[in-house]
Amino acid sequence: MSDPNLNDAIEPTESVDDELDTVEGADEVDETKAAEGGTPEGEAAEEEAKAESDPVAKLREELSALPGEWYVIHTYAGYEKRVKANLEQRAVSLNVEDLIYQAEVPEEEIVQIKNGERKTVRQNKLPGYVLVRMELTDQSWGAVRHTPGVTGFVGDAFNPYPLTLDEVVKMLAPEAEERAAREAAEAEGKPLPPRKVEVQVLDFEVGDSVTVTDGPFATLQATINEINPDAKKVKGLVEIFGRETPVELSFDQIQKN
């Protein structure tokens, strides 16, 4: 016959073992979740790491934390940088620095070809426009609108609408990517990696009428319908025996009429 007192003594021990197994199992699940980044802390760390490695994600994070809204103002063509400088000076002189925070002229790097020579230059991404981050009030509106070179706000003249975060990121991303690539190359002591940039041929444009100066089609007139800056060639149409014939010509074989 079993002793009931002995059974009572054993049961608590088994219960304790079960509880220990349960706790150990829960710890293992928590560790697995943490390893997989399933916790809020893990997800936050992943987002932070992504922002650090992706210049556009980092730019988005920085912009979203800034005060004010972004607006677009019209300027006289070629006066964008002057307007930016004038606006920054007026914000100080009119004591509205707490309303007008920042002015930006988005730029991009391009390659221009003229007389057969390639030159890398920076140009305005949005000719005739400047971005302004500000708190829109009557005072700040007046300070911006009456800045020399400004012709008005984009949208409703007196109640302009702000840009979305996506629109601002799209406009400022190229410079952020260029800066990140340059800093990474400098840190590693390596040259900048090649990037795809816009190429502009200043000598010729699609639709131009040119005279062929060399080769079998010399003295004939041609109309350019395609330009290949890298190969320094154009494709065009020349009239031979009353029919338009497609030809490929190098830059040094043609002269603009």
UniProtKB/TrEMBL annotation:
<comment type="function">
    <text>Participates in transcription elongation, termination and antitermination.</text>
</comment>
<dbReference type="InterPro" id="IPR036735">
    <property type="entry name" value="NGN_dom_sf"/>
</dbReference>
<dbReference type="InterPro" id="IPR008991">
    <property type="entry name" value="Translation_prot_SH3-like_sf"/>
</dbReference>
<keyword id="KW-0805">Transcription regulation</keyword>
<protein>
    <recommendedName>
        <fullName>Transcription termination/antitermination protein NusG</fullName>
    </recommendedName>
</protein>
<comment type="similarity">
    <text>Belongs to the NusG family.</text>
</comment>
<keyword id="KW-0889">Transcription antitermination</keyword>
<keyword id="KW-0804">Transcription</keyword>
<feature type="region of interest" description="Disordered">
    <location>
        <begin position="1"/>
        <end position="55"/>
    </location>
</feature>
<feature type="domain" description="KOW">
    <location>
        <begin position="203"/>
        <end position="230"/>
    </location>
</feature>
<dbReference type="InterPro" id="IPR043425">
    <property type="entry name" value="NusG-like"/>
</dbReference>
<dbReference type="InterPro" id="IPR005824">
    <property type="entry name" value="KOW"/>
</dbReference>
<dbReference type="InterPro" id="IPR015869">
    <property type="entry name" value="Transcrpt_antiterm_NusG_bac_CS"/>
</dbReference>
<dbReference type="InterPro" id="IPR006645">
    <property type="entry name" value="NGN-like_dom"/>
</dbReference>
<dbReference type="InterPro" id="IPR047050">
    <property type="entry name" value="NGN"/>
</dbReference>
<dbReference type="Pfam" id="PF02357">
    <property type="entry name" value="NusG"/>
</dbReference>
<keyword id="KW-0806">Transcription termination</keyword>
<dbReference type="InterPro" id="IPR001062">
    <property type="entry name" value="Transcrpt_antiterm_NusG"/>
</dbReference>
<feature type="domain" description="NusG-like N-terminal">
    <location>
        <begin position="67"/>
        <end position="175"/>
    </location>
</feature>
<feature type="compositionally biased region" description="Acidic residues">
    <location>
        <begin position="14"/>
        <end position="30"/>
    </location>
</feature>
<dbReference type="InterPro" id="IPR014722">
    <property type="entry name" value="Rib_uL2_dom2"/>
</dbReference>
<dbReference type="Pfam" id="PF00467">
    <property type="entry name" value="KOW"/>
</dbReference>
